[in-house]
Design brief:
The protein is 17% helix and 25% strand. It is built from three helices and ten strands; from the N terminus they run αββββββαββαββ.
Length: 291
């Protein structure tokens, strides 16, 4: 009797689970059938920055219409012959912002956006942050020079948050992150900043300062002079001590000095025998005559 009940319970459970599975399957199938798809161009393999896209480097795949993908292409012919500005992974959609403008050229020129310039300066192990400057690094540029008119040498930050686009002749960083000393570093700058960098490289000593790529702050900096480095040898001026306020209120009386105006009259001593007197006369009046 117990075995029969167990068998019946198992059959009921099997029927219920099968029905639930069939219901879920048909539901999902109907939803999938109603999703509209479109063709999107994707990469067939990993492609580095600066690569010129060929037909064999690309494929198309189905992409849901409801999932927004701005700048995507539907046909392979639309992107063949254009250069990549950024590297893309395998089966990653090719977007318009990843590509250089048509006719912008190949190699390094494809990585230069409109209105920007690639400016190269000499580098060494010190200037190049011990070889840890890679394409894509962000740096500040410091210049040390003697100001016009003489005076103590100063160091000033002349550029902030600048992108390194090449280190030597490489436009891609080392996959293993190994440091490499190069003789030339190329920065991506606007025309005005390019002039500043070239002037500083000829008239001053420049130094790159590596910064985090996530740090977009541009703090206001001031020049540091040589005198400040040896300021510790001199006794700094004493700061004025704050005035202590007493618990009792004191009344401050301000005395104002007013100049005294001279009188508008003069005095004359009059002698008449043994009698003497003092007479006052206004200015301009005739002097008294002695009798």
């Amino acid at each position: 009797m117990d075995t029969r009940r167990i068998v019946i319970a198992l059959l009921v459970a099997l029927i219920l689970s099968g029905g639930a599975t069939y219901f879920v399957y048909t539901r999902l199938r109907s939803q999938t059938a109603t999703i509209q798809m479109r063709k999107v161009v994707v990469s067939a393999k990993e492609l580095p920055a600066g690569a010129v896209l060929k037909a064999e480097d690309l494929n198309t795949t189905d992409w849901p219409v409801t999932v927004q993908l701005n700048g995507a292409f539907a046909k392979i012919d639309e992107v063949v012959g254009r250069s990549l500005v950024y590297p893309v992974g395998e089966k990653e959609p090719i977007l318009d912002r990843y590509l250089a403008a048509p006719g912008s050229g190949l190699g390094l020129t494809a990585k230069i956006p409109p209105g920007m310039r690639a400016t190269s300066v000499r580098s060494n192990e010190i200037v190049g942050v011990a070889g840890f400057l890679y394409p894509g690094s962000r740096v500040d540029v410091l210049a040390t020079f003697r100001p016009p008119g003489g005076g103590s040498p100063i160091t000033q930050t002349i550029l902030q948050d600048v992108e390194v686009i090449t280190a030597g002749q490489k436009i891609q960083p080392d996959p293993e992150g190994k440091p490499q000393t190069v003789n030339v570093v190329t920065l991506l700058l606007n025309p005005e900043d390019s002039q500043k960098l070239l002037l500083a490289s000829n008239q001053a000593t420049i130094q790159f300062v590596l910064r985090s790529g996530a740090d977009k702050e541009r703090p206001v900096t001031r020049a540091v002079s040589l005198d400040e480095l040896v300021a510790g040898a001199r006794k700094p001026p004493e700061e004025p001590q704050p005035m202590k306020r007493s618990a009792r209120t004191r009344k401050i009386v301000v005395v104002k000095t007013v100049p005294v105006k001279p009188p508008d009259f003069y005095t004359v001593e009059v002698i008449q025998g043994a009698k003497r007197s003092i007479e006052k006369f206004e200015e301009g009046a005739p002097a008294p005559q002695q009798q």
